[in-house]
Amino acid sequence: MYLVEISGVVQGVGFRPFIHNLALSFDLKGYVINNGYGVSIIIQASKDKVEQFTEQIKLQKPILSKIESIHIKQIKSKKIFKSFKIKKTKKSNHILTMIPSDIAMCKECQEEIEDKNNRRYRYPFITCTNCGPRYSIIKTLPYDRCNTSMDKFIMCKKCKKEYKNPKDRRYHAQPIGCFECGPSLLLLNNKAQTVEVKNDKFIDKIVKFISDGKIVAIKGIGGYHLICDATNDEAVQLLRDRKKRPSKPFAIMVKDINTAKQIAAVNKNEEELLSSNKRPIVLLKKNKINNLSKLIAPDINQIGLFLPYTPLHHLILQKLDNPIVATSANISNEPLCTTYEEIMQMSSIWDYCLDHNRDIVNSCDDSVLFWQHDNMFMLRGARGYTPKYLNLPKKTNKNILSLGANQKSTVAITVKDKVILSPYIGDLEGISSINHFKSNIDILMRIYNFSPDIIVCDKHPNYESTKLAFELKSKNKNLELIQVQHHYAHILATMGVNNITSKVLGVSFDGTGYGDDGNLWGGEFLVCERNGYERVGHFKYFKLLGGKKAIKEPRRIALSFLFDIYGENIFEIKNNTVKSFSKHELKTLYQVWQKGLNSPLTSSCGRLFDCVASLINIKQICSYEGESGLLLENFYDANIKDIYKFSFDNGQIDFSQIVNQILEDIAKEENIKIVVVSKFFNTIVEIIFTMYKKYDLPLVLGGGVFQNRILLQLLIDKIPNIILPKDFVSNDSAIAFGQALAVINKDI
Ligand code: ZN
Ligand code: ZN
Ligand code: FE
Questions:
Q1: Is the distance from CB of 685 to CB of 679 less than 8 angstroms?
Q2: For the chain, which domains are there?
Q3: How far is ligand 3, taken at its centre, from the CA of residue 522, in Å?
Q4: pLDDT tens digits for range 184-241
């Protein structure tokens, strides 16, 4: 008798019926059962046969499953089995069962909704064992229907028959339903009145509204979207006005790959990613000529596209001629809407809402990814990718809860040899986003029956996550609280996804993070080891005039350098930066600079992009984070190889030396933007390369600056074996993972 234990994503993905059918084909006797780590299989057969059997498990496993490990053990038992059975799940503690992510509609289901003779023809909630909502509907483990928001729908006879038949492709598909018994649509106007729809023509009606230039809200998998015709200038402008979002790019949903190719350049990797069962938003290079409204992503050469991922989106797009804007429904800085009450609070933004009655238990945004030079990177890890299970270098008995940073926040817990990372939560500004943050902690704790021994947070005293950590500590004296430096956590996270624990040179470039000396770091060279780091280089500190305000106004960054260079003579200077201020503002800011009022010191590299954007008049005031970096990308010319001179003084690079040279270039008045931007990028690369040569250690990148595709490409080309946050995020969503590693690594 043999016991085969399989761990990984093997529950809620049709694994047991697969094992059952495979065992029958091998003529094996015994049973399969879910356990706390995955599944156990008892087989009464010879060793050879068991090995052949497990070989086939690896080869034929269900699409959504992921096998982490298979252990075969001989056991003693006198029991004799006459058949092979699927045993009912016992109530045990489901400590390391991986929750499957929400998965886009599969091919078979698509064929069924398009088949007039199928009983689910045009059913907007069709699902099967291989597709549909998972994480967004789960309340607790084990993943059974009674533990999901499908529990209120009583299966009809036909559905029940499919659900119970191991040979059916809906065997144990928890979100199973049909017109008779499953979730249904509801159309509302913005006065909360139900719009009567004849013969269930919901899709036709909503398609008509979109074609007429209306803004509609549609409930998706992990939240609501705001949707409008992406080719209609007036509709897009209306959405921008109502959402108070002047220029931040919108993501576009297109009906198929061919439509995507009309809008953007799509290579093989990108095509695969777009059509994968995760269906993320993929950032692509926009075609010069396309039919989208110019207001979608103004002045930016990239565009985020995705394909329909629910049957509902599919049905709508099939009937529409045009691509649609599909942006998360939220009020700026607030979390994504997931309930009727929340979407009603936004009714001034939309005209009609296509709602449904399957509750979203756990909100989950759309994921955003891009390909660069054979590497995939994430900008936002959410639907389809989360919860994310990351490996720890070793098993731990410590229950660690990491609270991450303050922007693009995520939280994480440790279970055995894994870190379980939450989906992207967003920026922690305002009460509702903080509540949303807390609820994400609760979700992980509830699902994994987890209570922390150790809490890890950032060193920034004003981060909401830090405040919460101290609050939790004050309520429970037994909790250990550990604070981890932000930029070190960035590097640890990239090391972690690459399974590296040796000494490295970390380049941690981002907006800002709290440094050990109380200044705002962000352009750091750190020699990192698994149990600590040394800061060996950074950009020389400059003043952030007006603190937070300076982060939104590139001109304040440039002005800070101009004050350093010109001092009092600034009032005689006329350049783009200076001209963007009134005389009065200039005078006030000069005093602010002189006296250092509300002007924290920073070594941020992200802000240097702002400085350049202001000097060459690409952007003086940003309307969204990272805007100047995105705009600069448009002006890079790979034919320009020149760099600006720079020097290290005690490991410090004084950027005002570079600003001086930029001003000289501007004075030449030739192709200013292209020359300056290209030389700036080349210089940043050269600075990193110089440090790389000096320390001769593996080079690891971390921090939001490395979302910049030009910079990434140049570094990948220049530095052999560069270690990247591959298949992962480089921004602050990575911090929670890095924090957990900082604690674990100390004990290895
Ligand atoms: Zn399916
Ligand atoms: Zn049914
Ligand atoms: Fe950061």
A1: no
A2: 2-86 (3.30.70.100), 107-164 (no CATH), 185-356 (3.90.870.10), 387-493+733-746 (3.30.420.360), 542-722 (3.30.420.40)
A3: 7
A4: 999 999 999 999 998 789 999 999 999 999 999 999 999 999 999 999 999 999 999 9
HSE (side-chain half, CA atoms, 13 Å) at 124: 25
Tokens of 388: 């994310």
The C-alpha R_g of the chain, in whole angstroms, comes to 27
Neighbours of ion ligand 2 (CB under 5 A): 156, 159, 178, 180-181
Sequence-distant (6+) residues with CB within 8 A of 4 are 40, 41, 43, 50, 53, 54, 70, 71, 72, 73
What pTM was estimated for this model as a whole? 0.94
Residue that has been written with the tokens 């440039």 in this structure: 558
Rounded Cα distance, 610 and 388, in Å: 33
Query: Which listed ligand is nearest to 14 at the C-alpha?
Result: 1
- Report the half-sphere exposure of 673 (CA within 13 A, side-chain side): 13
* Token pair 């007006």 in the structure block, residue: 546
Closest CA to 114 of 276, 318, 279, 257: 318
Distance between Cα 663 and ligand 3 center (Å): 29
Q: 154 alpha carbon to ligand 2 midpoint, in Å?
A: 8
CA of 440 to the centre of ligand 1 (A): 28
Share of the chain above pLDDT 70, in %: 99
